[in-house]
Amino acid sequence: MSAGPTALDLLTRGSITVKGRMPWSSNATFLVELILEDASALGVYKPMRGERPLWDFPPGLFRREIAAYHLSEALGWGLVPLTVERDGPFGEGSLQRFVPADFEQHYFTLIERAEHHDRLRQICAFDLLANNADRKSGHCLLGQDGVIHAIDNALCFSAEPKLRTVIWEFGGQPMPADLLEDVTRFLAAGPPERLAALLAPAEQEALLARGQALGAEGRFPTQSGGRDYPWPLV
Questions:
Q1: Can you name the residues that pair with 42 across neighbouring β-strands?
Q2: Are 84 and 65 in contact (CB under 8 A)?
Q3: CA-CA distance, 218 to 61, in Å (whole number)?
Q4: What's the pTM value of the predicted model, to 2 decimals?
Q5: pLDDT in tens, 70-95
């Protein structure tokens, strides 16, 4: 007896029906239903057509969402929900698995519980590598499975330093050995083909340079000024 469609099957081949626009998103972001054979699931669709132009990032922010997924997978951290490129109802964009979550929870509530600190350190290290310019508190989702997921990763991978994040509680602390080992393994292998194809050569070089700096420093950085935070915070 054959298994039904997987999450990847649904994202890549399922029919897409827009259910509504996600609130509080600066770019057009839609909740969609995916149907393939007898299976269905929800996804988050971000079309390029709905992106606001930015002076410091080129068009096609959706590709950075996909790149963030591939970086997370290359590190073996499973932080970013499965994300693919799809030509949807409003044109090409990213399509991400929707995470059922407790939306009352976010970074500022999760950091109060010590059992979440290891996962939050992982997200912090990921953002340092990806050069995340927009890690808001609400971008850390506590899924119904009890796992924290990192979403909304479009403003990543600039070749210029742009880190803006709410995660500063670990500043000055040693980075856990297992995280450093994963970064070292990533540097030795280099960006996988699917990740490299989404980044400009200068962005690939900067990514590797950030990884080398993390390994050399061995500690989480501390704040340097007010520009270190995104706005709004949540």
A1: 33
A2: no
A3: 30
A4: 0.96
A5: 999 999 999 999 999 999 999 999 99
Q: Is 184 exposed, middle or buried (0-12, 13-18, 19+ CB in 10 A)?
A: middle
CB 160 within 8 A of CB 118: no
CA separation for the pair 166, 232 (Å, rounded)? 10
Chain centroid offset of residue 207 CA? 15
Q: Does the bond joining 89 to the residue before it have cis omega, within 30 degrees of 0? A: no
* Residue 146 in tokens: 């009890």
Contact 179, 218 (CB under 8 A): no
Angle at 117 between CA 181 and CA 155, to 5 degrees: 75
pLDDT per position as a tens digit, 187-205? 999 999 999 999 999 999 9
**Which tens digit of pLDDT belongs to each residue from 29-68?**
999 999 999 999 999 999 999 999 999 999 999 999 999 9
Asked if 61 contacts 85 with a C-beta cutoff of 8 angstroms, the reply is no
Residue that the structure tokens 């290290």 belong to? 125
Q: Which strands, in side-by-side order, build the sheet including 91-97?
A: 15-21, 30-36, 39-47, 91-97, 83-88
CB 169 within 8 A of CB 140: no
Q: Is there a contact between 43 and 86 (Cβ–Cβ < 8 Å)?
A: no
Question: Residue 121 and residue 204: Cα distance in Å, rounded?
Answer: 23
Residue 216's contacts (CB-CB under 8 Å, 6 or more residues apart) are none
